[in-house]
Amino acid sequence: MPLPVAHSLAGFTILQGQRLVFFQKLWQNVLLFVVLANLADADFIPGFFVGNPNAFHQLHSHSLGAAVLVGVLGAGYFGRKDQKYLAYFVVIALAYFSHVLLDYFNHDMRAPYGVMMWWPFSGEHFTAPQPIFVAVHKSSASGTFLQSLWHIRNWQALLRELLVMGPVALIAWWTKRNRKKAISH
What we know:
Layout: H1 4-16, H2 26-38, H3 44-49, H4 64-78, H5 85-104, H6 142-148, H7 152-184
Helix pairs in contact: 1-2, 1-5, 1-7, 2-5, 4-5
């Protein structure tokens, strides 16, 4: 699983590539898309309660089914103002599913390997044959989980994520900025 940095940059990239109005303020839109792109990792929370943050990680929350559910809920909420339900559904589900895609391209070192990408159609875990992102070091114990994230390997993972996703996000931002300039002239 990539760190929240890569997921956040993916969410920001998707925000730049769409034209719907979620909120009037830019920071609120950025926050929404960063949350959507990281939401799948909320599956760590119940794991903390059983003493193993990884206990439920990369299961149903890391799937097409979860992305569809989040997309439906988000479209129901945001689509009320202008009835563009399908457009909101697609953008929200894509922002959520970006998390699953990035995790698919991660070097996974812990069973079950990969993500349940196509659940509910398949309960199988999938992982890319050629990972883009490096493995993240994380403890299985609730008491040491947060501390373990400061491991040197994670700094290397952070650098890789910035090198891979940073230019993508920057190009998306630059393209949207120039598109707005062209329209206003």
